[in-house]
Design goal:
Length: about 375
């Protein structure tokens, strides 16, 4: 796993209950204080100025005292029963959590064994089992563990496709195709679970996702997902013939990291994405083809960082994007081909919208009410 992934605080395990004696003493003390406060408030509201002395104790007064004594005893018993019932409930809940964790561990061991099997069909079963375990995990930490294992599977080295031209390589070619199906299934399941709204069963939003250093040649669909926490890490990943979809995604605190990633003949789309506080990083990324599309995206905070990126082909487009107090940086970027286009983009506030785009970068995007330039298309020989 990448050391850059954010660490989550460890979840508390087991019970941490106070001794019953001090708890009861504290509960009685609080009850007496509350009763005294209520009595004093009622006394003041009724405007009482004193008590009428009784020289003789009649039967009616004695009966009232007996009822008061029994009421105090009953109240004390109810308080003790309430405390004991609460502690019993806590113990039962902890026992249920332990049982659920034990069952989860047993299922996890079986699923990991399937994932490590040599048969692709068995591995595929392990993938689905781990995804189901992540959905049913009794704690967030156990859910994150299942996701980490699925990501680690994608990061394992695998033999390249030997091709089907040589009959001697046909079996290895078929095995390669089968294992590729397993990897594509993992990527599909990741997208399926991140698209579910946070808080619903099966949603992985808020969990860290480490897909760094792998090769992605399939579609990952994060359509409409919300990244409010955690890190989605594509650092050093190679995208070849793939499509990564962040259309309509909301970035309100999470980070998506494409640092040092390589793009070749693919589509990475942030169309209609909303950036209110999150960050997308493309530092030192290599664009040799394909398209990175921010069309109609809304930037009201956060940043998009293309610092030291290399453009030798492909397009990065911000057509109709809107900017307000956001930052897009191209500092140190090198262009030997490809285009960066801000056609019909607008800005309504904020400073330092752009960096590294040469003289007059703040004229690239007009403020509200100003005329809209045709956009910026960088020539093949442009350098910052």
């Amino acid at each position: 796993m990448s050391p850059r992934l954010q660490r989550r605080p460890a979840e508390r395990r087991g019970l941490n209950l106070w001794p019953v004696g001090p708890v009861l003493a504290l509960a009685f003390a609080v009850a007496l204080l509350v009763a005294g406060g209520v009595f004093y408030t009622a006394w003041e509201l009724l405007g009482a100025r004193g008590l009428k002395p009784e020289h003789r104790l009649d039967s009616s007064t004695l009966f009232d005292l007996v009822k008061l004594s029994f009421g105090v005893v009953a109240g004390a018993g109810a308080l003790v029963a309430l405390i004991v019932a609460y502690r019993r409930q806590r113990v039962d809940e902890d026992g249920a959590l332990r049982d659920a964790t034990r069952l989860h561990t047993e299922r996890f061991t079986t699923a990991v064994s399937q994932l490590g099997d040599s048969a692709p069909a068995v591995q595929l079963g392990g993938v689905h089992a781990l995804a189901g375990l992540a959905d049913d995990a009794p704690t967030q930490a156990l859910r994150q563990t299942c996701i980490d294992v699925l990501c680690a599977y994608l990061q394992l080295p695998h033999a390249p496709d030997p091709g089907a031209d040589d009959p001697a390589d046909r079996d290895e070619h078929h095995r390669y195709l089968a294992l590729r199906t397993v990897r594509h299934t993992v990527l599909r399941l990741i997208g399926d679970h991140y698209r579910l709204p946070a808080g619903t069963h099966g949603s992985w939003q808020g969990c860290n996702l480490d897909l760094s250093g792998i090769t992605i040649d399939a579609t990952i669909n994060f359509l409409g997902a919300t990244f409010a926490d955690g890190l989605v890490n594509f650092a050093g990943t190679t995208f070849t013939g793939s499509e990564v979809i962040f259309t309509g995604a909301k970035f309100s605190g999470g980070t998506v990291d494409f640092n040092a990633a390589t793009f070749s003949g693919d589509l990475l789309t942030f169309v209609h994405a909303i950036f209110s506080d999150g960050n997308v990083k493309f530092s030192r990324a290599k664009f040799a083809g394909g398209t990175v599309d921010f069309n109609a995206a809304k930037f009201s905070g956060g940043s998009v960082d293309f610092n030291a990126a290399t453009f030798s082909g492909g397009d990065v487009t911000f057509d109709q994007a809107t900017f307000s107090h956001s930052y897009v940086s191209f500092n140190g970027a090198a262009f030997s081909g490809g285009n960066v286009n801000f056609t019909r983009a607008t800005r309504s506030g904020g400073n330092d919208l752009y960096g590294g785009l040469g003289p007059g970068p703040y004229d690239l995007i007009p403020r509200a009410g100003e005329s809209v330039p045709p956009g910026l298309v960088l020539p093949d020989t442009w350098m910052p």
